[in-house]
């Protein structure tokens, strides 16, 4: 069986405990969540969850069936590369001496990242993008010394 990253978007009722029930569904069955983001939609009574997991096809189909049984779940959409836009936000704090600052800024500009904080010994960069862009940027920044890295997890929406 082929194990791969799967992305699913859920529209759920914006009620207390919904996140806990969905996370509990994964926990009870021993499924791991790689990333989970949630936020209110244009309708304050509805939230969108984007869940990223690594699993095989039968497991993924089982997860979707179990999610469909939850009363608060309004709609489930599998997000695939060809039909979705996926983005993640990262904040990365780097060691930055006087000699490295211009190099870090130059690389950040190439990736359309934004410098959001500078001290005498550090720089903090903000970047939004898809997985290859985030990975490429982090690879370029590692030699400078990553002090701290924060990732939001992916959020996604269908194209069109």
UniProtKB/TrEMBL annotation:
Chain ranges of the ACT domain: 7-81
Role of this protein: Catalyzes the conversion of 2 pyruvate molecules into acetolactate in the first common step of the biosynthetic pathway of the branched-amino acids such as leucine, isoleucine, and valine.
Species annotation: Acidaminobacter hydrogenoformans DSM 2784
Gene3D superfamilies: 3.30.70.260, ACT-like. Chain A, domain 2
Lineage: Bacteria, Bacillati, Bacillota, Clostridia, Peptostreptococcales
Catalysed reaction equations from the record: 2 pyruvate + H(+) = (2S)-2-acetolactate + CO2
Database matches in NCBIfam families: acolac_sm (TIGR00119), PRK11895.1 (NF008864)
Keyword Nucleus: no
Oligomeric and partner information: Dimer of large and small chains.
GO molecular function: acetolactate synthase activity; acetolactate synthase regulator activity
The name this protein goes by in its record: Acetolactate synthase small subunit
Any one of the GO BP annotations: L-valine biosynthetic process
């Amino acid at each position: 069986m082929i194990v791969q990253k799967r992305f699913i978007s859920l529209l759920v009722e914006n009620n207390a405990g919904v996140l806990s029930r969905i996370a509990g569904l994964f926990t009870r069955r021993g499924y791991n969540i790689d990333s989970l983001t949630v936020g209110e939609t244009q309708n304050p009574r509805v939230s969108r969850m984007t869940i990223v997991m690594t699993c095989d096809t039968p497991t993924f189909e089982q997860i979707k069936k179990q999610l469909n049984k939850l009363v608060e779940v309004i709609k489930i959409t599998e997000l695939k590369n060809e039909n979705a836009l996926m983005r993640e936000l990262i904040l990365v704090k780097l060691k930055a001496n006087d000699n490295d600052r211009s190099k870090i800024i130059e690389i950040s500009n190439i990736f359309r990242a934004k410098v959001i904080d500078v001290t005498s010994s550090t720089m903090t960069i903000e970047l939004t993008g898809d997985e290859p862009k985030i990975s490429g940027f982090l690879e370029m920044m590692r030699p400078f010394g990553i002090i701290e890295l924060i990732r939001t997890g992916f959020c996604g929406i269908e194209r069109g």
